[in-house]
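PT: before anyone asks, these are the final sequences, not the draft ones from last week. 563 residues across everything. Please model them as a single complex and drop the result in this thread when it's through.
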Amino acid sequence: MRKKWRSNQLKVNIYAWLLLLPSFIFLFLFTYLPIFQTLSLSFYRADLSIAEPIFTGLENFRLLMEDKVFWKVMTNNAIFALGTIPLSVGIGLIMALMVNRAIRGIGWVRTFFFYPVVIPMIAIANIWLFIYTPSYGLINQVLGFLQLPDINWLGSTSTVMIAMIIMVVWKEAGFFMIFYLAGLQNISKELSESAKIDGASSLMIFRKITFPLLMPTTLFVLIIAVTNSFKLVDHLVIMTQGGPNNASNLLLYYIYETAFSYWDQGYAATLTVVLLVMMLVFAVWQFFGLDRKIHYS
Amino acid sequence: MKRLVDLSMYILALLWVVPLAWLVVTAFQPKELATSLSPHFVFTLDNFRDAWEAAPFVTYYINTFIIVFGILAVQLVTATLAAYAFARLNFWGRDIIFILFLLQIMIPADILIFPNYNILRDLGILDTKLGIMIPYFATAFGIFLLRQTFKTIPFELDEAARLDGCNLLQIIWNVYVPLAKPTFIAFGLVSVSHHWSNFLWPLIVTNSVDNRPLTVGLSIFAKSFETGAQWGQVTAATFMVIFPLILAFFIFQKQFISSFMQSGIK
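LR: through. Structure below.
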């Protein structure tokens, strides 16, 4: 009996491993292996001036600490995250509350809120480039019509970040609306109806019932929003190239520049390590803290 | 109060549709009128003709199609097999391996552009369509989604098929795949729209027109005009790139929205 169970167990293990193998090969090649290679390359000097990489220990990380652009980019990433996340999540929630009703034309409203999600970031950059263009752009024409001075949105260090944030909020709010809509539809109507009978105002119902019940959704949405704030850099290639004077540069774009414009491999690896560590810390934090309640129920 | 909510909702919706409306108007208007906000509107297809002649959009379209559906085809196979193992087989180290797989959701290939470029170079597949596709062949997200669905399928069906003499692959194909159809559709829509939009990775990997997808082609096309003089053409090209997506979105709107919804509630 036991022998049979054992051989069965062995069979199950072999089957399982065979089924996982195709996925595992690609995960190994393009997730695990690159992580290890990046880690090891970050201890080397490897740029165009030398033929073979030279081991330099922590030299790259020392350079990093002194690199003004690096700190500028990190600050920008923080500003970008703090600017886009609360706004897009907040507007997404408001949108969901608005369209979660049965009134005429609501399908169209929902569509208008959601369509930016399916448009590629690079196409969005093209569209918004023309919206922000000095004097002829849509916004500046409206400003001109109102007799207000022209603003060079993408050309000045003080407005370029705001311009990026507005564009990304426009793209992402509809995405978060969808998750909130799903969350809202899981909340039973009876709760809010009985509260209404007890004389609670709509605002009160939202604060005391709806919002707390949407907490798992909010946490989930925040996770996506944070990850996206590190991934979204496509628009920089077309709109600003990180400029002017690095005012709109973000970490992933800086990695792209370092690796494929300056061809400084060692330093690009070091920058990638920074990004990896941030993502990992965030992943561990959500897995052991936040995420328990939402993902695996 | 209710009126106020309605009104602000319509204003917000209008505000959200302005960029698309402006794109469409500019794309279909003669060049001379492109930068004016004036109300008169003259319809023309000249911009599309010019853009179509100025860049090899047919090649770009074909490339995007090959890449997007190539990725999806492989993903469906790898994800289905792995999802079954995680959902139904009790094997050694399952939980640890599952977490190891999920790592890809937190550290997606999108942020590993630099090391993955080196791996592609070592494999000798730089500037190929395969090179653009291969990092996405395994999908932790798809595995996760399908695993959740497979778990809800009654185990009795599995056993009944086994008694009928089905082997493991036949069980997956005959029992699990048909019952998980909505999840496959949801995953397919998310995957296709995601990879249709992908830009930075194909930009790095490709060097030649033969392998460039639409997004990269569009950026090169747009960058070749630094001045605002060619707005008509650039907006027409942008419209061509997003048109299939927008069309698909309007046709399959319900599925799209519910797919994205479903992919969120795990």
